[in-house]
C-alpha cells in the first residue's frame, strides 16, 4: 500500500511540475501580526513589537490525508511577500500532501521593524538583530500558530528557504531539531566565510558571474574589461570624468577620489551580481529570460555600433537598473546601490531600512569574503580586506565582524535531514555544501540553475535537471515525513508507559 501511494504521489507531482502552461504563482495568503518579544534572552527587557506573518491553510483544511505537515519558510532580508511569492515549489508540493504554509517576516525587515525606520537603528536596539533572536522569533510564532489553529502539537514541520532564508532553515534544523523535522536549504552559502578551513576559494563569486556573462559570447567579458580599463584612464582627468558621467548616463557629476571610482565599480558589479543570481530561464517582470545573455547581447551591439566601451557598459548595466521603468534618463547611484559591508549589494539605495539591516548583519555575523581579481573575473582587482571591513563596521555600527560565529555555532556536519541544493549558474554556489554526509545531509547540484531556482514555482522553460531536482527533493522529504510520523508514534507509546 505504501509503495502504491508513493507511486501515485510521484505521478501526480510529475503532472503538476511538468504540465503547467505558465509560471506558477502561489495563491494569495492571509496576513496577520504576532506580538513578539524584542529580546528573548533578557527577562528584564519586556518590550515587544509587531511581527508580520503570512498563512495559507486551504491545502491543509481541504485535504483528507493523514499526518499533514507544516511547511515553514523563515523570512529573510526583505519584505515577507518576496519570499512568499518566490517559493512556489512549497505550494505545488504542499498541495499534494495537504501542507499548512507559514511565512513569518524577519525582524528588522519589511514591515517588522521593531520601533520604526529610525529608532529601530539606535545602537542599543540594532544589537538585537541577530540570528539567535530571529530563530527564537520563528519558534515562538510556530508554537503560537499551532495553538491558534488547533494543529497537532507534534505536526511534522519542514523548513524551506533560499539564500539567507536557506541558511536560516538549516540553522533551525540544527538548533531546534525537536521543532523542525527537516530542512531544504537552497543556494545557502554556509561555507562562504573568510578564514574558514575548507571554505571558498578567493574570487569564486565573480568568477561565476563572469562565466555566466560569457554564455552568449565568450568575448563579452573582454569587452567589460576594456571598458573598465578605459574608465580608469579617463578618471585621471576632469574631462575624462565628465566623459564617464556622459557615457554611463549618471545623474550627478563625480569627484576625483579613489572612493568615487570604487563606488562606480561596485555599482556596476552589483548589476552583474544581480543579473547572475536572477539568471532564470523565463522573464520576471521587465527582466528578460536569461538576462545575462541579454546583457552580453547589449554589450556586443553597442560596442559594434559605437566603439565606445564605457557607453556600452552603461547600456549593459541598464538591463538590471532599467527594469523598474521603461527607460531611465540617467542613473542615480545613491538610489540604486547602498555602499555597504556586502560588496555584492545590500538591496535598496541609501537610507533604505532593509539595506541598513543587511549592512548591519554583514558587519556582525554574515561575513562573506567576496572579492575580485581581474584574472578569473572581468572586474578591477579588489582583494578581500578584512581589516578595512572591520574599520567600516566599527565606524558605521560600532561592531566587530565575527567570521567564525556562524560556522562554529551552526555546524551542519553534525545534523540530520538537511538538503543543500545549489545551481551552477548561481554566483553563491561555491560557498554551498557540495558533498553529502551519508544520508543525513544531502547535497544536490543543478547544472542549469541560478539562485534557488528549485524553490521557485515551475515554468515550462525550466531546465530538466531543475524539474528532476524538485522531484528528488519531494521524494526525500516524503521519506522524512514518514520517519517523523513513526518517531512521534513511538514517543507517544513511550509516554503512555
Q: Can you give a write-up of this model?
A:
With about 500 residues, the chain is α/β, with parallel strands linked by helices. Helix content is about 45%, strand content about 10%. It is built from 19 helices and eight strands. It has helices spanning about 1-20, 60, 80-85, 90-95, 115-120, 125, 130-150, 165-175, 205-215, 220-235, 240-250, 260-275, 290-305, 310-320, 335, 355-365, 385-395, 405-410, 465-495; strands at about 30-35, 50-55, 70, 100-105, 155-160, 180-185, 420-425, 440-445. An eight-stranded mixed sheet has the order 1-2-4-3-5-6-7-8, with helices on both faces. Strand 5, helix 8 and strand 6 form a beta-alpha-beta unit. Helix 9 packs across helix 12 and helix 10 (about 220-235) crosses helix 13.
Main attributes of the structure:
497 residues, alpha/beta, 8-stranded mixed beta sheet, 8 strands
List the helices and strands and how they pair.
Elements: H1 2-18, E1 30-37, E2 48-56, H2 58-62, E3 70-72, H3 80-85, H4 88-97, E4 100-104, H5 116-119, H6 123-126, H7 131-148, E5 157-162, H8 164-175, E6 182-186, H9 204-213, H10 220-234, H11 238-248, H12 258-277, H13 291-306, H14 309-321, H15 333-336, H16 353-364, H17 386-397, H18 405-409, E7 418-423, E8 441-446, H19 464-496
Parallel strand pairs: 3-4, 3-5, 5-6, 6-7, 7-8
Antiparallel strand pairs: 1-2, 2-4
Amino acid at each position: 500500500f505504501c509503495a502504491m501511494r508513493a507511486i501515485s504521489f510521484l505521478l501526480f507531482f510529475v503532472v503538476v511540475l511538468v504540465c503547467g502552461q505558465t509560471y506558477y504563482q502561489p495563491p494569495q495568503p492571509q496576513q496577520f501580526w504576532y506580538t513578539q518579544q524584542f529580546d528573548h534572552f533578557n527577562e528584564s527587557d519586556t518590550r515587544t513589537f509587531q511581527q508580520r506573518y503570512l498563512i495559507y491553510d486551504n491545502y491543509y483544511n481541504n485535504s483528507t490525508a493523514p499526518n499533514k505537515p507544516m511547511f515553514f519558510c523563515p523570512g529573510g532580508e526583505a519584505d515577507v511577500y518576496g519570499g512568499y511569492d518566490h517559493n512556489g515549489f512549497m505550494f505545488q508540493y504542499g498541495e499534494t500532501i495537504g501542507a499548512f504554509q507559514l511565512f513569518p517576516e524577519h525582524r528588522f525587515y519589511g514591515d517588522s521593524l521593531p520601533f520604526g525606520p529610525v529608532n529601530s537603528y539606535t545602537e542599543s536596539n540594532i544589537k538585537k538583530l541577530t540570528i539567535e533572536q530571529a530563530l527564537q522569533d520563528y519558534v515562538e510564532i510556530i508554537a503560537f500558530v499551532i495553538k491558534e489553529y488547533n494543529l497537532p502539537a507534534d505536526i511534522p514541520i519542514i523548513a524551506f528557504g533560499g539564500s539567507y532564508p536557506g541558511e536560516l532553515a538549516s540553522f533551525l534544523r540544527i538548533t531546534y531539531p525537536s521543532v523542525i523535522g527537516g530542512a531544504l536549504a537552497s543556494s545557502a552559502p554556509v561555507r562562504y566565510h573568510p578564514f574558514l578551513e575548507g571554505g571558498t576559494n578567493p574570487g569564486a563569486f565573480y568568477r561565476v558571474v563572469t562565466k555566466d556573462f560569457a554564455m552568449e559570447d565568450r568575448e563579452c567579458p573582454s569587452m567589460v574589461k576594456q571598458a573598465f580599463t578605459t574608465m580608469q584612464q579617463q578618471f585621471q582627468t576632469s574631462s575624462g570624468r565628465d566623459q564617464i558621467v556622459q557615457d554611463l548616463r549618471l545623474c550627478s557629476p563625480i569627484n576625483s577620489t579613489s572612493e568615487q571610482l570604487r563606488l562606480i565599480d561596485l555599482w556596476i558589479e552589483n548589476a552583474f551580481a544581480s543579473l547572475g543570481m536572477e539568471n532564470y530561464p523565463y522573464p520576471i517582470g521587465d527582466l528578460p529570460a536569461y538576462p545575462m545573455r541579454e546583457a552580453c547581447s547589449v554589450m556586443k551591439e553597442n560596442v559594434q555600433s559605437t566603439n565606445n566601451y564605457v557607453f556600452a557598459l552603461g547600456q549593459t548595466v541598464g538591463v538590471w537598473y532599467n527594469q523598474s521603468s521603461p527607460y531611465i534618463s540617467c542613473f542615480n547611484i545613491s538610489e540604486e546601490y547602498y555602499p555597504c559591508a556586502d560588496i555584492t549589494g545590500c538591496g535598496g539605495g541609501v537610507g533604505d531600512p532593509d539595506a541598513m539591516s543587511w549592512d548591519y548583519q554583514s558587519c556582525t555575523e554574515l561575513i562573506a569574503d567576496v572579492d575580485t581579481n581581474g584574472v578569473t573575473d572581468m572586474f578591477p582587482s579588489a582583494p578581500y580586506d578584512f581589516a578595512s571591513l572591520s574599520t567600516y563596521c566599527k565606524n558605521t555600527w560600532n561592531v566587530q565582524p565575527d567570521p567564525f560565529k556562524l560556522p562554529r555555532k551552526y555546524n551542519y556536519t553534525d545534523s540530520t535531514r538537511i538538503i543543500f541544493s545549489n545551481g551552477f549558474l548561481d554566483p553563491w554556489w561555491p560557498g554551498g555544501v557540495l558533498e553529502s554526509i551519508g544520508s543525513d545531509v544531502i547535497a544536490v547540484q543543478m547544472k542549469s540553475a541560478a539562485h534557488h531556482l528549485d524553490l521557485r514555482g515551475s515554468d515550462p522553460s525550466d531546465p530538466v535537471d531543475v524539474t528532476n531536482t524538485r522531484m528528488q527533493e519531494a521524494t526525500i522529504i516524503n521519506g522524512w515525513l514518514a520517519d517523523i510520523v513513526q518517531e512521534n508514534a513511538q514517543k507517544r507509546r513511550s509516554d503512555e508507559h
